[in-house]
C-alpha cells in the first residue's frame, strides 16, 4: 500500500460523485464493509422515501427549516470522503437545517428520520441534515432513526467560535434496514463538540464521522455505543483531523456483540498535521463478545506530522464475557440472564453517563435493556 493510499491526509474529499469510483471491497476504507448490501446507495438516483420530522417547536434560540443545498449555511463542513457520502449529497434536493443560537446547554432539539412500517419494500433514499451552532451557542441535537429504510444520509455539523454542542445520533432501525451515514464536522476556534453514535437496530449501519479541528483550542469528545445481535453489521469509521494548534480530542467507542453472527467494525484514524502543535489526543475501542462466532474488528491508527504535541495514544481490546463476574452474581441469587444484563449495563454505564443529558441517558439505558430483552421501547 503506497503512502498516498494509506495516509488520511491524502485521501480524496469531493462533492462530485464522478470523483469516486464504485467501491469493490478491496480498498482500505471498504475492506470490512459488505459492499453488495450498499451498492444501490452508491448511485445518485435515490428517492426521498424517509420522512424528516421535528419533535415539537424548537426551543429558544433554535430554528429548524428546510433549505436548498445552495443555502450559505450548507456545505461548510468537510467534503464527502467516499462514494456513499457523495451519492447522498448528489441525490439530496433539500436539507434540514438546525441553527443553534441559544445558550441553554440542556435544551434538546430532536430531529427524527422515519422509514416505512414494513408493509412495502423501501426505496434507496437520501437525506441531508445540517447543524450549525452559532458563536457561543449551547445545546443538544438528537437525531433518531426508526422504521424500515435504505438510506444514504449526510450530516454536516459546523461549530463556530466558542460554541459548545452535543450531537447524538441513535440508530434504532427496524430489522432489515440498511443505513450509510456520513457525519462531517468542522470546529472553529475554541469550539467544543460532543459527538455520540448509538447503533442498535437495522441489518447494516455504517457511520463515518469526519471531525475537523480547524481552529485553535477546539475540542471534541467522540463517543460510540453499539449493541449488535445475530445478522447485524454495525460499523463506525472515525476520522479526527487535527489542523489547529492546541486542540484536544478524546474518542471512546464500546460495543457488545450478542449473537453468533453479530459483526462490528471500528476504525479510528487520527491525523495530526504539521501545523497542529500542542495537540492532545487519545482514542480507544472496547468490545464485549457475548456469543461464540461473533466478530469485532478494531483498527486504531495514528498519523503524526509534528513532534511538538502534548500527547497522542490509542488502545483497543476485545474480550469474551467474564464468566467469573457471571458466577459472582449468580452465586448471590441473581438469574443468569439478569446477571448478563447487569454486566453489559456496567460496561456501558460510564460512557452513557458522559452524554450530558439525564433524559437522553435514561432513554439509552432503556434502549439497551430493550435490546437485551429482545423487545422494543421508544426513545422520548
Walk me through this protein's architecture:
The chain is an alpha/beta fold and 380 residues long. The chain has helices at 3-6, 35-38, 83-91, 323-330, 336-352, 358-373, and strands at 51-54, 62-68, 94-100, 108-114, 124-133, 138-146, 150-159, 164-171, 178-187, 192-199, 204-213, 219-228, 233-242, 248-257, 263-272, 280-289, 295-304, 311-320. The strands form two sheets. A nine-stranded mixed sheet has the order 1-4-6-8-10-12-14-16-18, with helices on one face. Strands 2-3-5-7-9-11-13-15-17 form a nine-stranded mixed sheet, covered by helices on one side. The longest helix is centred in the last third of the chain and has 17 residues, at 336-352. The model is unreliable at 1-5 and 375-380 (pLDDT under 50).
Output the keywords:
380 residues, alpha/beta, nine-stranded mixed sheet, 6 helices, 15% helix, 42% strand, globular, disordered C terminus
Annotate the secondary structure layout.
Layout: H1 3-6, H2 35-38, E1 51-54, E2 62-68, H3 83-91, E3 94-100, E4 108-114, E5 124-133, E6 138-146, E7 150-159, E8 164-171, E9 178-187, E10 192-199, E11 204-213, E12 219-228, E13 233-242, E14 248-257, E15 263-272, E16 280-289, E17 295-304, E18 311-320, H4 323-330, H5 336-352, H6 358-373
Parallel strand pairs: 3-5, 4-6, 5-7, 6-8, 7-9, 8-10, 9-11, 10-12, 11-13, 12-14, 13-15, 14-16, 15-17, 16-18
Antiparallel strand pairs: 1-4, 2-3
Helix pairs in contact: 4-5, 5-6
